[in-house]
Specification:
This protein is an alpha+beta fold. Helix content is 30%, strand content 18%. The protein folds into four domains: 5-67; 72-117, no CATH class; 122-161, no CATH class; 163-202, Rubrerythrin, domain 2. The chain has helices spanning 5-15, 17-28, 46-61, 67-70, 85-92, 99-108; strands at residues 75-77, 80-82, 116-117, 125-129, 138-142, 146-148, 154-156, 165-169, 175-178, 199-201. The structure holds zinc ion (ZN).
Amino acid sequence: MNEDFAVVAAALQKKYRGVYDVHEFLVGNGLRDALLGNKPTRRCGAKQIVDPTFRMFGAVALGETPLMKSFRVVTISRRKVYGNPESLDQLQSWSDDWKEKKDLETTIGCPLSELEVATADASDLVTVAGARPWSGGGHTVPKKRTTEDKYGEPVLKKLRDEGKKPATCTACGHKWPSKSTRFKNGGCIECTRCGTFKAKYD
Ligand SMILES: [Zn+2]
């Protein structure tokens, strides 16, 4: 690898300022290797150095890391705040003349005062197996994102299958999950195997 770490660091700072700042913070605390002052080796390029920090951001956004519990971290999506209610109080107490406040409002597309903590009705949630022990051994997820496995246990639906319904082709017998909205021949959808408009939702 012959990339120039200084160039990568500058690009990172420009494009992903938050990731850059957090990476630098972790470097300062001995938790990451620094880009600046380091040289790429055969096994360790810039990707290997900054990837863990990028992954950490992804994990925070998905609530997959206990960081959410230890720090005042929030994820904001569609005017909803995912995190501790106290974190929202803190955000909303930011002073109007603070540049950071304007920047954040521009990024999320709405004033901080309009944000609400996301809530969920316990009856709409279900715990699926297969998570890390610190989170209690299971992920709690919205029921509509799950399906039942062959043992009747709730499991996460594959995202790509969400919104699909079982369909069967009357011509070739093919069964598959579809979300086609093109109907022909009296309400039939196109079969993904034989290509005829002779399939129907079950
Ligand atoms: Zn078919």
